[in-house]
Description:
Elements: H1 11-25, H2 29-40, H3 44-53, E1 74-78, E2 84-88, H4 89-150, H5 160-213, H6 219-231, H7 236-240, H8 245-273, H9 289-299, H10 303-313
Antiparallel strand pairs: 1-2
Helix pairs in contact: 4-5, 6-8, 9-10
Amino acid sequence: MAVDQESITSVDQLAAALEADDSQDHQDPDNAQPDAEAQNDEPDGQLEQEGDQQQPVEGEGDQPAAPESLDDTVVSWETASGEKFEVPVAEMKLGYMREQDYRHKTQTFAQEREQTVQHIQQQYQVAETFAKDLGHLHAVNAQIAALEQAIPTIDRNSDPAGYVDVVTHLQTLREQRTGIAGRVEQAQNQQQAQQQQQFQQAQQRMLSDLQTSIPGFNQEMLGKLSTTARDYGFTDQELGRITDPRFVRLVHDAMQHKTLQAKAPGAVNKVKAAPVKPAKQSSTATTTGVEINLKKFAKNKSLDNFAALLQHTI
Length: 314
């Protein structure tokens, strides 16, 4: 039985309404067809009887119209403290989706954080093991050196047992040194390989940045930039270890500045060689005071204007 959408006042009723709405939306039309055919096979009298039962009740049209969809339904509830809330179902769905997105991002961040912590712990354990092996290797080398100096002083005839013990101990230490040295070398090789991988990744990021920040950046321009950097005293070894794109952009600006400086003398010579054009003289005649007063008197033949004109003519 479907729950009346206007009477939803609790979360349980909302869940029941959602379930009923979903079941109506996903009803199979193929399964509904036989029911319609079965109803058509019923006697006419029964159909008429059902038609009479389905007549609208008087006054039913005065009731408020139901919401067009479940999203428009307003859910109301009251908390234990007496606060009342009314929220449309659509807003509740949006809030649920935001909560799901926040939960997903939080879980992703927690997983990345856990992976980072595990990586740091592994690196710390590797460094700790490497430090122990390196210290042990130095200690074994010192013991081997002491025994090698002591063996020539032992008389094998007078103290054969002591001599055998020292030689046996020396052989054991040498075997230990071989194993420890192998682990140290393996750790160093792994560290170098990891550093090389990180360096290559940093260079790839630098090249990607330069292709975006410097127009027309390519292998040819990179060669010109290297030449400019060598002019400032950088060695090939130093240039081969650069991973910061800011340094390359700085060299690019220096190269452009040097190019402009090289073109500057030519531009100055062109300016000097250009012919000097004489200044145009103005042909406009200067208006005299007589002409000015004459125009004033022509416009207004007053006594003051006539006196002024007469003063310039005397």
